[in-house]
Amino acid sequence: QVQLQESGGGSVQSGGSLRLSCVASGYSYTRYCMAWFRQAPGKEREGVAYITTDGTTDYADSVKGRFTASADDAKNKWYLQMDNLKPEDTAMYFCAADFVGFGCNWYALRFDYWGQGIQVTVSH
């Protein structure tokens, strides 16, 4: 059974940094589209970053230049480095993986596997 587990969330002040991790277990894959989503209270879930097997990344405009997605394929682990955090980044963050499809995007229905979510809180 495939499981994704996030870690690294927490509380920081505005301008601070956090690094989220997502580790996959229970599946042997050759390609992936791995995305990070977030959802703030009362708001819709939004995609913020993704990374593919060949290292292609993309970012939502709201986080471009501040967030960096990376992968350690040897460890089945993905990371989201979040710098210069702002209060509006406060949300529950989720990693999601598609090990079958081609290309990558933030169409939530393509992702078969989701982490349980981890809270990121940025204070003024």
Structure description:
The protein is an all-beta fold and 124 residues long. It is built from no helices and eleven strands. The strands form two sheets. Strands 2, 4, 5, 6, 9, 10 and 11 form a seven-stranded mixed sheet that branches. Strands 1-3-8-7 form a four-stranded antiparallel sheet, with no helix packed on it. A hairpin with a 4-residue loop joins strand 5 (46-52) and strand 6. The chain is globular, with a radius of gyration of 14 Å. The model has no long low-confidence stretch (mean pLDDT 95).
Helical fraction equals under 10%
Question: How many whole angstroms does the radius of gyration measure?
Answer: 14 Å
Structural class: mainly beta
State the shape.
globular
What are the secondary-structure elements, in order, as H or E? EEEEEEEEEEE
Strand content: over 45%
- List low-confidence stretches: none
